[in-house]
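In the previous chapter we treated chains in isolation. Here, by contrast, the input contains two separate entities that must be folded as one system, with a combined length of 726 residues.
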Amino acid sequence: MSAAPQAVEAGLALESAVRGGLEDYARVQARAARRYGPDFVALWEIAAQTMTGGKLVRPLLMAEAVGGFARARSGAAVAPATVIDTAVAVELLHYAFVLHDDVIDGDLMRRGRPNLIGTVAAQHPDRHAPAAMHWATTAGILMGDLALSGVYQTFARLDVTTQQKERLFALLDHAITETVAGEFADVGLADGCLAPELGTILAMSANKTATYSFAWPLRIAAVLAGQGREVEEALASAGRHLGLAFQLQDDVLSTFGDPARHGKDPDSDLREGKQTALIAFARITPAWTDIEPLLGCDTLTDAHANALRAHLEACGARRFVEGLVDESMGAFRDACADPSSPIPPQVRAVLADAADRLHERQS
Amino acid sequence: MSAAPQAVEAGLALESAVRGGLEDYARVQARAARRYGPDFVALWEIAAQTMTGGKLVRPLLMAEAVGGFARARSGAAVAPATVIDTAVAVELLHYAFVLHDDVIDGDLMRRGRPNLIGTVAAQHPDRHAPAAMHWATTAGILMGDLALSGVYQTFARLDVTTQQKERLFALLDHAITETVAGEFADVGLADGCLAPELGTILAMSANKTATYSFAWPLRIAAVLAGQGREVEEALASAGRHLGLAFQLQDDVLSTFGDPARHGKDPDSDLREGKQTALIAFARITPAWTDIEPLLGCDTLTDAHANALRAHLEACGARRFVEGLVDESMGAFRDACADPSSPIPPQVRAVLADAADRLHERQS
C-alpha cells in the first residue's frame, strides 16, 4: 500500500518536528550540563547524536494517532507543542531502555554505528584499556537514568488537565513495569534462570516490546485527545497484537535478515544463545540435537552460524515464527476491522499504515 | 550531646514509621509483580529486604525538619501520611543510586551483608557461572530503574498543592542531575579520564552525595512546610556543607575506620585507586613516590594496604582531610548560628542533632 503524496509530506514534516523536539531537548540539557564540566557536556552531545538517529517509530505512532483523532473531530483538540513534547518523552523512554539494554548485552553498536557506549569508549585516552569500557558502561547507565527521569520531567510539564496528567503517569508506571519485567525475563531466559517454554518467551516478547512500543504510545494518544477508557483499551489491545508481531518479526530478521539493512551483527542472537520463539520451537524438533551444541557458543564461526540458520529453516522454526507473526497481524487487523470497535476510522487508518510499514520492513 | 529520652523515643517512632512505609511500598510492588511470574516477585522481595536495612539518614532528616517547622508553628501543617510517603520517595532515590553505583563498582556487599546483586547471584542455579553475575547485575540495573521511577510515582500521588508538586519535581530534577554528574566525575577520575585535582574531587564529592543526601531532603521539608524560597536556600546551603563533611569523613572512615563497624572491605578504595581528597593531597607530597606504585593495584595484599595507610597518615593526608571535615562542619555551624538566618530555631536544632550524630559516627 503506498501512501498519497500529501500524506508522505505530512509524515515527513511530523518526523522532522519530532526530531527537532529531541534536538532541542538535548541542547537544553547540554547547556545545563556546562556547570559540571566539559565531559558532562560531551556526554549530552553524544546523547543528542545517538538519540535522534532512529526511525522514531514510537513517537510518530503516537503523534499520527493524535492526528487521526483530530481528523475524526473526536474529543478535544491537542496543541501541536503538546504533541511534540509528548513525542519527545515517548522517544526518551525508548532511549533509556535501549541504553540499559545495551549495557546489559555489552553492545557497542546500534543501527550499524557506535552507540553512546561505543562512542564514549572510543574517546578514552587508552581505548583498549578495561577502564575505557568501564567508563563507557557507566556513561550508559547514568545517561539511561537521566533519560528515564527526563520522561517524567517532560510529562510533568505538559499543558494538559490534572486528570490527563494523572492518567499519563499511571500509564508510564505500567509501561515501565511491563518492560522491566519483560527484560528481566529475557535475560533470565538467556542466563538459564527461567525454563525456555514458548509461552514464557511469547509473554516476555509482549512485555518487553509490545507494551511500551505500541500499546503505550496509542494509549497516550487517546488520553491527549480526551478519549474515554473504552477507546484507550481498544487501542492498547490492537497495539499489543501489532507489537508482538513486530518483536517476533524482529527475531526472524535478526537471524535471517540482511545485515546490510538492519545494521546488527547477524550472528549475535545465535552466539548469545538468545531464547527466541525460533529456538523454543526448534527445541521440540529432532533438529535440536544438531542445534544445541552450537547455540550460545562464544566462538561461533560464520560456517557454524550458517549451519544453525539452515537447521532452523529446515526444522520449520522460521516458518512457525513467521506464522505467529501472521497470526498476530491477523488479530491486529481483526481488531481494527471490528465494526463494533470504538476506534474512529481515521485512527484505524493510522494503525493500518503503521502495520503496513512494519510488515514490509527489512530491518 | 545526648538527646532527651522523649526525643529518642520520638526519633525511634519516626524511624519505624518510615521503615514501615518502605515495607508497605515494596509489598504493594511485590503483589503487583505476581502477574510477571515468581522470579519478578522474588526480585521485589529481595528489594524489600535490602531497601529497609539502612539507617534511613535522608528520609529521617527530611521528616525531622518537617517536625521542626511544626514545632516552630511556621508555615502549613503537613499530614503525617504525606511525610511518610515523601520519606519513602527520598529513600527510594537513595536506593536507586546505590543499586546503580553497586553495578558500576561491581560490589556484591553493603553494610556487611549481600546487597541485591549479591543475593540474586547467590540464588542462581550455578552461582559461580558468569551467567549468575550477569543475571544479578541485570537485576541491579532494572531494580534501580524501578526505584527511580517509584520516586516520581510517589511524588506524583502526594496530596500537596499543584505549586508544591511542581517545586518537588524541579528539585528532584536538580538532585538527579547533580548526583549523576558527581557519579560520572567519580568514575571518570577512577578511570583516568579526568585530572585528579583537589578542586575537581571536592566538587565531585559535593555533587555526588551532599546534594541528594542533605540539601535535597532539607529543601523538600521546606516545600512541604510551605516555606518560601529564602528558607529553602538557607537550608540547602547548610545541607551542602554538612553533606560535604559527611562525604569527606566517609572517605577517611573507608580507609582508616573499623571494618567491623562500617561493614565494607577496608582496602577497596585503595585497591580500586579511588581518587579521594586523601589521594589528591598525597599526590603533592614527597610520599607520592611510595604511594603511587601500590595504589589501584588489583593484587593489593593486607601488608601493602597497611603500608599505604601508614604513608597516608605520615604525609599528612589524613590530617588534611580531617581538617577539611572540620572546616565544612564549621561552615555548617556558622550557617546555623547566623542570627540573620531565616531558618527557625526548632529546625536549626534538628540540623545540629543530625550533625552531632554524623560527626560521632564510626561507620
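Chain A has two domains: 1-53+80-158, 161-363. Residues 162-190 of chain A form the longest helix (29 residues). Compare these points with the single-chain example from earlier in the chapter.
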